[in-house]
Amino acid sequence: MTAYVIVDIDVHDPVGYDEYKKLAPAAVALFGGKYIARGGHTETLEGDWSPSRLVILQFENVEQAKKWLNSDEYSQARKMRHSTAKSNMVVIEGT
After folding, report:
1. Interhelix angle 14-30/62-69, nearest 10 degrees
2. Tell me: the pLDDT tens digits for 24-83?
3. Rounded to an integer, what distance in angstroms lies between the CA atom of residue 74 and that of residue 92?
4. Bridge partners for 35 per DSSP
5. 1, 35, 36, 46: least CB-packed within 10 angstroms?
């Protein structure tokens, strides 16, 4: 079943985060992932959630999304994301 990774990112080091954005796509693609949305305009329709930067990734299934997240190929980019931004990430099964 298709899986979507949704990441709410609060960037505190824009220069460093720009370097992360150069590294991450190759690892995403290597694990069959693709970007559905990345940093576009968001508008809150209900509630008080006000994300800074949203990214939505699509993978073949939850297992593949987890393989990407914990892979050696993504580890450098992941460390860079952690040092340049605060992130909240979830994975959800889709149809």
Report:
1. 130
2. 999 999 999 999 999 999 999 999 999 999 999 999 999 999 999 999 999 999 999 999
3. 20
4. 57
5. 46
Comparing CA positions, the residue from 12, 4, 61, 11 lying closest to residue 37 is 4
At 45 the three-state DSSP class reads: coil
What does the alpha-carbon distance between residue 13 and residue 82 come to, in Å, rounded to a whole number?
10
Helix count (H) and strand count (E) of the chain?
3, 4
Q: Could you tell me the pTM of the whole model?
A: 0.93
Cα separation, 38 vs 54, whole angstroms = 6
Contact 58, 33 (CB under 8 A): yes
Tokens (6 digits) for 69: 């997240």
Fold annotation for 3-93: Alpha-Beta Plaits (3.30.70)
10 in Cβ contact with 88 (< 8 Å): no
- Judge whether 58 and 3 are in contact, CB under 8 Å: yes
Distance CA 57, CA 24 (A): 11
